[in-house]
User: Which sequence fits this backbone?
């Protein structure tokens, strides 16, 4: 049951220079609306002290500001902080929230937060055409009545509904809808409001944001009452079993669901029963684990046996071994320059090494992995996998917000490093970046590693998995001890389980393969060129001798693996392909392959990841991360080798 | 399209790059990021092979005889 109240405050006296502020989630058509309202006179500048871009223009006589897309006003990111501060800086003429009619539940969650500011407000429900096409019918009249605010429908890309919106900009009025929270929160809001400056606009919104964890607002506006404010927040938080931000969002969502029930009709087809049952079982605390185990075993068999076994065997042995490489060798030997011949088909040749690794070995493995990953994505299982992963991360004691970048790391570590911005402190961001660099392989690398370990006996696979998992847990546990502060929750809306379309998975896989080859092959060529140069100049031999105490003594590996480690600095799957080739040539025993794969799994994922760490955290931090990860990876390998030798473990 | 991770519905054609993303400087970056959760995926529209396969599959589907014609 939701409770709300209506406030009928009089419209405030209008400041002629007060701006109209556009607010909304990312990609809801805000920029299209901004362009349609302002024409071409747009200024884009950074918000002071940040790299966040804010667009400014004019609608008639009034200034218009387009704020960055946000998820909430909890100020978890720079974008959210900038939008919040724009709303707090000076009373706007009117706040126009652009809402996505297809995702109205999420949009209304932001609406109820904006309503708490008490500013004049218009809800612009955009993309109504697409919502109607999906069978959603919205009663805007009823929504306006319930919210006590102006509501307009637009299709900004076609400039529909703009006249109605412009007409409402002339007579802005405050939104009447307010959520009535439970007694504990309402009491805290009342006490906090009394401690904030009396001339503050949006005091109720600010009190709720302080309760939700915006400590910077308390410090900024609390003045001499700061200690009292902090005491109220701590006292209120102690009344709940979960973070206050979660509790406040939960109560808001209850009201939003109530609102939706009154204004939206969904004529979509009901979900199938088996899918709902499977979807629930996949995140069940007990049933979820066997399902997860079955998925991982299926993935291992499909990628390992079919991809790395059958397909790589054919590509390497038949296509390259019998046809392409012999023909290429015949043709290349016609070139009268021995250096060029060696560069193309020598030990570190572009054809014999770069193309063979990239196409004969890696391509079949990533092909099968991308097919399987596409199936996980399109079936709706992937988000459930993320929910299951949340539990071990919680067990580590890691801040809940750290889960999202770690899950996203399975897609791409480089992009996941960017999402560490949602973490509140620099220390959190650096530690999660370190964990990502250390132990989370991206989807392509996971596929290659999975393909490699399929050649090992099951006991060796268990050892590899156990060591890597233990290292991630150990570092995660340590990180959790070093990261102070309250835990937060990982909130993810689960899409329904559905039967994937084969054509979609095929197209997606082909797109990924093309992207992978475009990104990876140049790096493979670069790595091979580096090895070729080192070999020709004699530096490779010197490096092998220099690294002998570590590679041969510490890790118990032959000197030939030094080359694989060198190219592993560029991409760890390229290094893994090097070990794979050595193992198939009989130069690595299964035990040595386990040690090699553990070390390479703990390497920094790729050179692009290092560059993003530099971009996000600066050279100094990137150097620290690299300086920690590589010696740590070799150290774990050395300990493993010592344990294997001491206990006489042989696979 | 719908994000494969969080299910958020968004128009990939209207996507703009994240502020501060180092890839934003590279015009023609072939990755899409979900505006809701940040999940990264390959943009099929920028893959020539995927476009070709999509068209080929559509052609095969259209050429299949309708129920009444069998």
Assistant:
């Amino acid at each position: 049951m939701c409770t709300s109240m209506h406030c009928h405050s009089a419209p405030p006296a209008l400041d002629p220079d007060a701006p109209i502020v556009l607010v909304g989630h990312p990609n809801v058509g805000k920029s299209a609306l901004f362009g349609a309202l302002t024409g071409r006179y747009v200024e884009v500048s950074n918000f002071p002290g940040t790299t966040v871009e804010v667009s400014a223009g004019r609608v008639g006589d009034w200034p218009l500001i387009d704020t960055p897309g946000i998820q909430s006003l909890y100020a978890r990111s720079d974008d959210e902080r900038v939008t919040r501060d724009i709303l707090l800086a000076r009373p706007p003429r009117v706040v126009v929230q652009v809402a996505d009619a297809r995702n109205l539940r999420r949009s209304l969650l932001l609406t109820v937060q904006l309503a708490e500011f008490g500013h004049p407000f218009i809800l612009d429900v955009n993309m109504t055409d697409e919502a109607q096409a999906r069978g959603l019918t919205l009663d805007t009249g009823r929504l306006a009545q319930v919210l006590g605010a102006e509501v307009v429908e637009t299709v900004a890309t076609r400039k529909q509904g703009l006249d109605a919106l412009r007409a409402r900009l002339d007579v802005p009025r405050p939104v009447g809808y307010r959520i009535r929270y439970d007694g504990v929160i309402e009491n805290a809001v009342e006490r906090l409001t009394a401690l904030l400056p009396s001339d503050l606009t949006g005091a109720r919104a600010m009190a709720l944001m302080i309760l939700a964890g915006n400590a910077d607002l308390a410090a900024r506006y609390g003045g001499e009452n700061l200690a009292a404010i902090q005491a109220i927040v701590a006292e209120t938080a102690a009344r709940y079993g979960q973070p206050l931000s979660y509790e406040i969002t939960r109560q808001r969502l209850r009201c939003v669901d109530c609102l939706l029930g009154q204004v939206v009709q969904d004529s979509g087809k009901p979900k199938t029963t088996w899918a709902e049952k499977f979807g629930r079982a996949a995140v069940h605390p007990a049933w979820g684990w066997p399902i997860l185990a079955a998925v991982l075993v299926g993935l291992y068999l499909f990628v390992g046996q079919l991809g790395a076994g059958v397909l790589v065997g054919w590509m390497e042995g038949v296509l390259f071994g019998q046809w392409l490489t012999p023909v290429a060798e015949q043709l290349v030997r016609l070139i009268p320059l021995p250096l060029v011949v060696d560069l193309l088909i020598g030990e570190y040749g572009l054809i014999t090494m770069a193309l063979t690794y990239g196409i004969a070995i890696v391509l079949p493995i990533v092909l099968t992995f991308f097919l399987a990953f596409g199936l996980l994505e399109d079936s709706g299982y992937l988000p459930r996998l993320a929910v299951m992963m949340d539990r071990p991360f919680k067990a580590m004691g890691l801040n809940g917000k750290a889960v999202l970048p770690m899950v996203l790391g399975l897609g791409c570590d480089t992009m996941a490093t960017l999402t560490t911005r949602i973490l509140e402190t620099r220390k959190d961001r650096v530690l999660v970046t370190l964990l990502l660099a250390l132990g989370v392989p991206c989807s392509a690398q996971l596929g290659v590693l999975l393909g490699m370990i399929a050649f090992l006996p099951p006991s060796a696979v268990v050892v590899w998995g156990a060591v890597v998992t233990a290292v991630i847990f150990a570092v995660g546990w340590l990180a959790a001890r070093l990261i102070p502060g309250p835990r937060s929750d990982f909130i993810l809306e689960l899409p329904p389980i559905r039967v994937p379309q084969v054509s979609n998975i095929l197209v997606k896989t082909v797109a990924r393969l093309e992207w992978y080859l475009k990104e990876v092959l140049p790096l493979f060529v670069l790595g091979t060129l580096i090895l070729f140069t080192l070999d020709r100049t004699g530096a490779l031999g010197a490096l092998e001798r220099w690294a002998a105490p570590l590679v041969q003594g510490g890790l118990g590996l032959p000197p030939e693996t030094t080359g694989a480690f060198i190219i592993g600095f560029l991409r760890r799957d390229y290094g893994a392909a090097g070990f794979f080739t050595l193992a198939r040539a009989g130069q690595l025993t299964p035990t040595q392959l386990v040690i090699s794969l553990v070390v390479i799994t703990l390497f920094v994922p790729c050179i692009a990841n290092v560059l993003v760490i530099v971009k996000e955290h600066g050279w100094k931090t990137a150097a620290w991360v690299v300086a920690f990860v590589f010696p740590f990876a070799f150290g774990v390998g050395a300990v493993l080798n010592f344990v294997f030798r001491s206990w006489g473990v042989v696979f | 399209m719908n994000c494969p991770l969080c299910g958020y519905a968004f128009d990939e054609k209207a996507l703009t790059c994240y502020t501060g993303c180092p890839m934003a400087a590279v015009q023609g970056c072939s990755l899409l990021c979900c505006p809701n959760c940040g999940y990264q995926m390959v943009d099929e529209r920028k893959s020539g092979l995927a476009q070709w396969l999509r068209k080929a599959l559509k052609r095969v589907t259209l050429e299949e005889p309708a129920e009444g014609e069998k």
User: Anything to note?
Assistant: Confidence is low (pLDDT under 50) at residues 40-51 of chain A. Chain A touches chain B through 54 residues (CB under 8 Å).
